[in-house]
Amino acid sequence: MKRSESKSHCPINFSLETFGDSWSLLIVRDIVYFGKKTYGEFLESEEGISSNILATRLVTLEQKGILVKNPHDTDKRKEVYLLTEKGLDLIPVLLEMAGWGARHDPETNAPQSWIAAVYADRERMIRVIRDTVRSGGSIFAGQNSVVSKLEMD
Amino acid sequence: MKRSESKSHCPINFSLETFGDSWSLLIVRDIVYFGKKTYGEFLESEEGISSNILATRLVTLEQKGILVKNPHDTDKRKEVYLLTEKGLDLIPVLLEMAGWGARHDPETNAPQSWIAAVYADRERMIRVIRDTVRSGGSIFAGQNSVVSKLEMD
DNA sequence: ACACTTACTTGCAATATCGAAGAGAAATAT
DNA sequence: ATATTTCTCTTCGATATTGCAAGTAAGTGT
Question: Residue B69 pLDDT more than 50?
C-alpha cells in the first residue's frame, strides 16, 4: 500500500492519514499556539524533530492543503508557512487533544486557566483563535495573542 | 529516545504519544462507532491492520489505561476489550476528527445527517454516546445504538 | 476423537525514523 | 570586497517500526 492510497473513506481514517503521525500536528500546534512560521522556528521546538523529517512533513502538509509556503517579505532565505482554511479547521481537533492531554497527564504544562476558558465558551473561543491565527497571530505568543486579548495568562 | 520516554509535557504532544499513531484511534473508533470488542472483530476492520500490530497496540492501549481486557462471559478463548473512563474521554476527539474528515474528504463515507446531528447538539450527543458505549452499545451498531435512539440513519 | 475457531507469536523483508554532517543561497560583519 | 554566519533543506548510515505470511496453543462444536 503506497502512502498516497487510502485504506478507507472512514472520516476518522481520512483524518489520521492526513495528520495522524507523530509530527504533523505538532507543526500545526506551533503555528496556532506559538505563532511559528519558519523552518528554523519549527526545528527549535522542544520535541526535537529531525531536520529531514521536518522537511518531508512540510512538503506533505503543503501537498495535502493544510499549509501554504510563501516567500518571506524581507529575507529571501526564509519561507513563511501559513495555515490554509483547511488547516485552520484543525483548531477544534487541537483543542480537544489539548483538553484530553491536560486532563490525563499528571505532569502537564497546560495552563489550567486556559483549558477552563476554552471549555467555558468553546464556540466563541474557536472563532477568536481562528481569526487571530488567520491574521498572523497565535494563542500564546506575540502582540495580538488570544490570551492577551482575553487578559489572562 | 525510547517510545516510553516523553518528548515534552505539552498536552497535545502527550495526546499524540498516547494515541497518535496510525492504528490506536481506529481501534477506539471500532469500539465507539461499531461496538467491536474482540481481537477478531478488530482484525476484520476494512483498514486491514496486521495481526502483530493489533496485538502490540492492544497491549499498549491497556498499559496506557485506555482499554481494559476482560475474559469473555461464555467463550474462554475470547477476550473482551472495553474503554476505560479515560478512553471514553476520547469521544470528543473522535467526533472532531470525524467532523474534519467528513468535511474535507470528497469521497467520505460519513452520513451527513449524523455529522449534522453532532454539530447541532454537541454536548448532549457526547453524553448520549458516552452512556451508550459505557453500557456496551455503540453509535451505529447493535440494538441500543445511538442512531436508533435518535431515530435516524 | 477430530476439525475448527480464537488470540496471539515468530521470522523476515520492506519501510520509516533518527542523528550527524554537509550543500547552496542569501544576509551580515569586517 | 571578502569572510563569516544564517537559513532552508539534503544526504547518509544506523536503528526502529511496520507489514506479510506462517505457525502455535488453548477452547469449542460435533
Answer: yes
